Design the sequence.
C-alpha cells in the first residue's frame, strides 16, 4: 500500500525512461519531472507510469534495502 | 504505459463479468502487501516512524502523521497544538496535490479532456518548495508564513484550474449552474460522468471515525485478526471511504444523489474548503477532523488520517519504546474490498461493447482511486 519502489534508470528516450527494480522493467514518463534525469539515477513512479521524483542513490538504496527486508519477511511468513 | 509492476508495490486485478449487454459482476484480486508494516515491529518507535516515511512515500505526509500520532497515543503523549496543526496542514496540502493529479493527469483521457502535465508539474513544484512531501523529519514545527503561502497556492489552483472562478463566487452560483455552464474541464468531466446511472447505493459511506470509534471498534478488530487489514468492515459491512463519504452530508452539492459523478464532485467541494482550513491552521486555529487518534489501551495507540483516497488508519502496540505490533489499514482496502464499492458498483451497468465495459471499470477504479496500479480483465459471462 502506498509503496513506491525506487527504480533505476537504464535507458532514456525523449520524455521516457526504461527503469528497473527487483528484476521488473518498465517504461515510464518523465514529463512530470522538472529536473534532468540520467542513466543510473533512481526514480519514484506512481501508478499510471509517471515518474514523480528523482532520488539520490544513497536514499534510493536505503529504501530498496528496506523493501528487500519487507519482501524477505513476507516471504518467510507466507503473507501477501 | 507501464509493464511489470514490481511485486513489492503490488497491484489490483479487476475481473469484470460481461454478458454482451451488461456488466454482471466484478471480483477484486489484490497482491498489495498489506502486512508490510511488520517490518516496523521489533524496532524502536522513532526508528519505526522513520521507516514509515521511507516505505510509504506515495501518501507520505498522511502516513507519517498517522504513524507519529499512533505512537504518541500509545505512549499516552498529547501532541503539542503546533505539532497537531502542522500535521493537519501537511495532510491537507498532500490531499490537494493528489486531487490535482487525478484531475489533470489520470481522468482527462477517460473523460474527453486534455491532460495538463505542465500545470500539474508547476503546482507540485510550488507546493514542494513550501516543504510538503520532503524531509526526513516532517514534524519540524509550524511555519505560519509558509502555511499562508500554501493556502494562497491552493486557492489559486482551485479557483483557476478547477472552478474557473473564485471559491466564494462558486458557492454562491450553485453546483448545477456551474456544471451546466461547462466552462472548465472539471465541470465537463463531471457532466461526462453524470449520465452514468451508477447509483452506487449498495455500500454505505464510512462515517467519520471519531477517537472513541477508533478505540472501541477499529483497534479491537485489528488486534483480533489480520483479515481486517485485508478486508476492513464497519459494523460488519464493507464501507466506502474517500471525499464522497466525507462530504455526502454536505448541503453543498447534493452528492448523495449524483452517483459516480458525486465521487468526483466531492473532491472539488473539499478543494474549495482547503484554503480557508489552511489559513485557520496557520493562524493558530485547531483542526482535528482529519488527524485524530486515541489510546486503545496502555501502550496501544490508534490514529486515523484523512487522505485523498479516504481514511488511513495506523494502530501500534509499544512495549516500552519498542514496537511490538503495527498494523495499517489503507483506504484502498475499504474501497476494493471483495464485496465493497468497486465490486458492487458495476453490477448491472449497461455496456454494449467490451471496450465500454473496460472503460466503465477503469472509470470507477480511478474514481475510487487505489494507490496502486490496476489491471482490468473482461470475463465473458
Sequence:
Amino acid at each position: 500500500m502506498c509503496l513506491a519502489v525506487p527504480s533505476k534508470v537504464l535507458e532514456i528516450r525523449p520524455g521516457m525512461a526504461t527503469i528497473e527494480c527487483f528484476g521488473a522493467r518498465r517504461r515510464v514518463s518523465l514529463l512530470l519531472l522538472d529536473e534532468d534525469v540520467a542513466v543510473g539515477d533512481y526514480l519514484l513512479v506512481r501508478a499510471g507510469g509517471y515518474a514523480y521524483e528523482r532520488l539520490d542513490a544513497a536514499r534510493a538504496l536505503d529504501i530498496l534495502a528496506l523493501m528487500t527486508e519487507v519482501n524477505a519477511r513476507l516471504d518467510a511468513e507466507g503473507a501477501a | 504505459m507501464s509493464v511489470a509492476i514490481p511485486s513489492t508495490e503490488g497491484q489490483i486485478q479487476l475481473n469484470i463479468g460481461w454478458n454482451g449487454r451488461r456488466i454482471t459482476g466484478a471480483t477484486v484480486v489484490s497482491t498489495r502487501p498489506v502486512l508490510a508494516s511488520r517490518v516496523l515491529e521489533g524496532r524502536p518507535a522513532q526508528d519505526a516512524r522513520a521507516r514509515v516515511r521511507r516505505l510509504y512515500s506515495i501518501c507520505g505526509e498522511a502516513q507519517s502523521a498517522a504513524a507519529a500520532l499512533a505512537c504518541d497515543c500509545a505512549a499516552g503523549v498529547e501532541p503539542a497544538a503546533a505539532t497537531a496543526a502542522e500535521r493537519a496542514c501537511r495532510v491537507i496540502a498532500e490531499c490537494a496535490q493528489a486531487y490535482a493529479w487525478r484531475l489533470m493527469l489520470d481522468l482527462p483521457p477517460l473523460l474527453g479532456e486534455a491532460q495538463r502535465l505542465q500545470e500539474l508539474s508547476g503546482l507540485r513544484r510550488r507546493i514542494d518548495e513550501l516543504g510538503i512531501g520532503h524531509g526526513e523529519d516532517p514534524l519540524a514545527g509550524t511555519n505560519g508564513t509558509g502555511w499562508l503561502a500554501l493556502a494562497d497556492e491552493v486557492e489559486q489552483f482551485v479557483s483557476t484550474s478547477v472552478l474557473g472562478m473564485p471559491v466564494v463566487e462558486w458557492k454562491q452560483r450553485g453546483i448545477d449552474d456551474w456544471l451546466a455552464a461547462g466552462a472548465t474541464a472539471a465541470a465537463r468531466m463531471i457532466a461526462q460522468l453524470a449520465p452514468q446511472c451508477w447509483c452506487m447505493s449498495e455500500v454505505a459511506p464510512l462515517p467519520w471515525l471519531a477517537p472513541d470509534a477508533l478505540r472501541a471498534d477499529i483497534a479491537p478488530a485489528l488486534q483480533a485478526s489480520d483479515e481486517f487489514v485485508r478486508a476492513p468492515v464497519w459494523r460488519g459491512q464493507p464501507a466506502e471511504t474517500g471525499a464522497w463519504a466525507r462530504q455526502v452530508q454536505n448541503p453543498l452539492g447534493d452528492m448523495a444523489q449524483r452517483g459516480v459523478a458525486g465521487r468526483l464532485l466531492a473532491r472539488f467541494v473539499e478543494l474549495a474548503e482547503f484554503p480557508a482550513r489552511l489559513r485557520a491552521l496557520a493562524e493558530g486555529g485547531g483542526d482535528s477532523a482529519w488527524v485524530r487518534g486515541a489510546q486503545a489501551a496502555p501502550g496501544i495507540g490508534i490514529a486515523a488520517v484523512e487522505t485523498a483516497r479516504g481514511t488511513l488508519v495506523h494502530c501500534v502496540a509499544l512495549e516500552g519504546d519498542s514496537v511490538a505490533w503495527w498494523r495499517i489499514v489503507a483506504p484502498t482496502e475499504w474501497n476494493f474490498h471483495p464485496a465493497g464499492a468497486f465490486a458492487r458498483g458495476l453490477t448491472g451497468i449497461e455496456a454494449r461493447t467490451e471496450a465500454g465495459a473496460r472503460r466503465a471499470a477503469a472509470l470507477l477504479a480511478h474514481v475510487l482511486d487505489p494507490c496502486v496500479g490496476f489491471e482490468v480483465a473482461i470475463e465473458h459471462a
